[in-house]
UniProtKB/TrEMBL annotation:
InterPro entries: HerA_central, P-loop_NTPase, T4SS_component. This is Helicase HerA central domain-containing protein. SUPFAM superfamilies: P-loop containing nucleoside triphosphate hydrolases. It comes from Deinococcus humi. It holds the Pfam family DUF87.
Length: 826
């Protein structure tokens, strides 16, 4: 039933002498799906159909939805196995088990798009399996097909589809997986020149032909309702006629909410323009006598037909006519599953106002084989549309496939899997932002992402700044972690004058940091630059002088020592000369204002102190929860210490080590223009240090502070916003306009998943550098991880007693909670 002859190079040769080439293509993702943008692209697609499909040739597109296999999440389990941290390992194993359970239930699919095109050699060059060609004839024919393939791929790329030519193995893979749907992957193809006689049949040598390699499953048509291919049941549906209306991308309706294994097959064969013209003229002449002849009473149906033919003749030279067909191949593991899939597909097709879908029953076998990739067959139910309508049934948009490898695997809204990683060669930076209103699942998203990154990069460094204690449970449970509390009730003391081990005097970076810290209390004159210069000299001289004074002491200098030095600084100069009067006056003025940080000042215990902790862990959590909301001074003190730690950590570890920095509620932590400038300076150099900077905020207005540095954030996660706010979000973040409609539809199902729009500024994609790709993802975690990461009042109140009974062991306490509530971890 299949006309396959053999694969030569990247072209499949059929027994009737025709050749077929193929190419993969990736339509733009859903985030670009707008009627206007698709209509603009349809003009370019019309050129593809006219140039890629010569008269009499057939292009067949396959939208392939295959049930995902466990191999798709094998990297998640591999990262877990290699992770030394028991908590991260267990959370990652639980995530792998969740994904595998969804795969085993058939809830997630793998999407792929490819097309095949026939090439018919000219009459003088025709050959068949009965009249075998010479080596030169087959070589010339294949060269011509490959040249057409290259041209078609170039045209597809120009039309906004990322297309790549199919290789010999790709062609074999698609044929094999279609004919053997129960196999997880195809074996390696053995080309003709490498085949060896390895067995005998009926005493004669047996060679491994293409068909022998493809037929690995037994077929059965004993049941009248379907065809069985190995251990899978197959059925076929066809659209009975072209819809009463077409719109660009209506094929998306057919695939909506489908998961499992499907092939949506669209076939288009271009008819000869000359033959079509003659046919129309003949029909017009026949109808003319029945409609316009004297003494003839016109027939209403004939009048309508004549009008349609006259309209079709006006399209000559503008539109080509095609023979087209749309079919859906359904493949299921059980009969019940097949019935469910058929009902869902029929429901989708019935919405197209295209007549009832056609089912085949015992003829499904013949239709199944006629639709096989590279078989050159044609469906039995056809339309006769023009180019514009053919373009309308071409796959317009697709789920984003993500990166080739990643630290975490998300599920998108279309129930397929997306691999994602902050550090990827597909983007320029590893920085990201999360924009989402409160209650959108932002905290779970960030912790889930960082847990995956730490599993993939076990030696990575993580620093998180948080004002709401959202990350505390996570940091209490993982290894090599340290929690630093800021606030008036904190017992933590950190002396900003501490130097790195072995250093006697501050270097340029440390000196600049101390200068900016002192300026928190000694505000510089706004309009008097000369006075500011005198103060800068005085403060710098004072800082250097106390380090010299304390060089032999057992303790590090602190803020009160700087205050005393500024009051007597005329006696300490670096060159032995008396200090200038203006600098002496500036030093005394600065000392007076520095009193705000000393003595009975509320901030004095935290500013004028000796350190009682050493920040040497690889994972640091800075909680500013204890600082009152309106206490800007204490916030600035904490922010300065945190910023210095981030700087030192970025430079301390080798560049090859991944470093993650995250600031939650960014707009509440960065208070002044100077602090914002400091973050901008870090952003400019973080890429060189191997740092990924993350920012979480409820307000998109926070991004406006970065100006042109907004392009430094390659990854954007955007949560649900109401329709009115979504318009501003799209404008401020320069998002595709369709996001105005998408953002209000994002869902958050408590205890199950939360949806985010993920947009990635990819490099080197079709359409030029800086192209945004992405999709709507569903952040879903195991019950164990969800209760570990959740930070709502209700969840924290329930976790507390369990953790306390477990002796402070967070993981053990959360495990017991999950066991009591759900009877398991998933």
């Amino acid at each position: 039933m299949l006309p396959y002859w053999d694969l030569y190079r990247d072209v499949l040769v059929l027994t009737d002498g025709r050749l077929m080439y193929g190419f993969y293509f990736e339509p733009p993702t859903h985030i670009h799906f707008t009627p206007d943008s698709l209509l603009r692209r349809s003009a370019r697609l019309k050129a593809v159909f006219d140039l890629a499909i010569p008269d009499g040739e057939t292009m067949t597109t396959y939208t392939s939805l295959r049930g995902a296999h466990e191999d798709a999440v094998a990297d998640t389990r591999r990262y877990a196995d290699a992770c030394s941290d028991p908590v991260i390992r267990e959370l990652t194993h639980a995530r792998a088990a969740l994904l595998e359970s969804k795969i085993s239930k058939g809830e997630v699919s793998h999407w792929r798009f490819f097309a095949t095109v026939t090439v018919t050699p000219s009459r003088e060059d025709r050959f068949t399996a009965d009249t075998a060609p010479s080596a030169r004839e087959i070589e010339d024919a294949v060269k011509g097909a490959l040249a057409l393939q290259a041209g078609t791929v170039a045209q597809m790329n120009a039309s906004g589809f990322r297309a790549t030519a199919m290789t010999q193995q790709d062609v074999f893979d698609e044929c094999f997986l279609y004919l053997n749907p129960g196999w997880p992957s195809a074996p390696a193809f053995v080309p003709q020149e490498e085949r060896s006689i390895s067995s005998s049949r009926r005493g004669l040598p047996d060679q491994q032909t293409l068909m022998r390699q493809l037929t690995a499953s037994v077929g059965s048509n004993l049941d009248a309702g379907y065809y069985a291919a190995g251990d899978r049941y197959v059925d076929v549906l066809s659209v009975s006629r072209l819809p009463e209306y077409t719109e660009t991308g209506y094929l998306r309706s057919i695939t909506e909410d489908l998961h499992g294994t499907y092939y949506v097959v669209v076939q288009a064969q271009r008819e000869s323009d000359y033959d079509v013209s003659n046919e129309l003229e003949k029909k017009k002449n026949d109808l003319w006598t029945r409609v316009r002849s004297p003494g003839v009473i016109p027939n209403g149906k004939a009048v309508n037909l004549l009008e349609q033919i006259e309209m079709a003749q006006r399209l000559e030279g503008l539109e080509s006519r095609f023979r087209a067909a749309v079919s859906v191949v359904l493949i299921a593991g059980t009969k019940d599953e097949l019935d469910t899939m058929k009902r869902r597909a029929r429901g989708n097709m019935s919405r197209l106002r295209a007549g009832l879908p056609i089912t085949y029953g015992f003829q499904a076998e013949a239709q199944y084989f006629s639709l096989a990739p590279f078989a050159g067959g044609f469906s039995g139910f056809q339309f006769s549309p023009y180019t514009s309508n053919v373009v309308d049934i071409f796959p317009p948009v697709s789920p984003w496939k993500g990166f080739d490898e990643g630290a975490i695997t998300f599920q998108n809204r279309d129930k397929s899997l997306i691999r994602f990683d902050l550090f990827t060669k597909s983007t320029i930076t590893a920085h990201f932002c999360v924009f989402a209103p409160t209650g959108s699942g932002k905290t779970v998203l960030v912790q889930s992402l960082y847990n995956a990154e730490l599993a993939r990069y076990p030696d990575a460094v993580l620093l998180v700044t948080d004002a709401k204690q959202d990350f505390e449970s996570f940091f209490k449970s993982i290894q090599d972690a340290q929690i630093i509390h800021f606030g008036y009730g904190s017992e933590t003391r950190l002396n900003v004058f501490d130097l790195e081990d072995g250093a006697a005097l501050p270097d340029g970076d440390k000196l600049a940091s101390l200068m900016s810290f002192v300026r928190i209390f000694v505000e510089p004159p706004v309009n008097d630059l000369r006075e500011k210069g005198y103060e800068d000299v005085a403060i710098m001289e004072g800082i250097m002088a106390i380090y010299v004074q304390f060089a032999q002491e057992d303790r590090t200098p602190q803020m009160s020592d700087l205050y005393r030095m500024l009051t007597i600084i005329e006696n300490y100069t670096d060159d032995g000369r008396r200090m200038e009067p203006q600098v002496i006056d500036a030093a005394r003025s600065a000392a007076v204002r520095l009193r705000k940080a000393l003595g009975s000042s509320p901030v004095a215990p935290f500013v004028d102190c000796q350190s009682n902790v050493t920040l040497n862990a690889r994972r640091l959590y800075f909680s500013i929860y204890g600082i009152p909301e309106d206490d800007d001074l204490m916030k600035r003190v904490a922010n300065h210490i945190i910023k210095n730690t981030i700087w030192s950590v970025a430079r301390k570890y080798e560049r090859g080590i991944k470093k993650f920095v995250f600031m939650d509620e960014f707009e509440n932590q960065v208070q002044t223009d100077q602090e914002l400038d400091a973050v901008k300076r870090m952003l400019r150099v973080f890429r060189s240090f191997g740092v990924s900077f993350g920012m979480g905020t409820q307000s998109v207005a926070a991004s406006a502070h970065f100006g042109d540095l907004r392009d430094s954030f390659s990854h954007l996660f955007i949560g649900r916003y109401s329709k009115d706010v979504a318009r501003d979000v799209v404008r401020v973040l320069s998002l595709p306009e369709v996001m105005e409609e998408t953002l209000p539809t994002l869902n958050n199902v408590v205890g199950q998943y939360s949806e985010f729009a993920l947009l990635v500024q990819a490099s080197g994609e079709a359409g030029g550098a800086g192209t945004r790709v992405g999709d709507v993802i569903q952040v879903q975690e195991s019950k164990l991880a969800l209760w570990m990461f959740n930070s709502g009042n209700d969840e924290v109140a329930q976790k507390g007693p369990y953790i306390e009974r477990a002796g402070g062991d967070v993981l053990k306490g959360v495990k017991n909670l999950v066991l009591d509530k759900f009877g398991g971890y998933l």
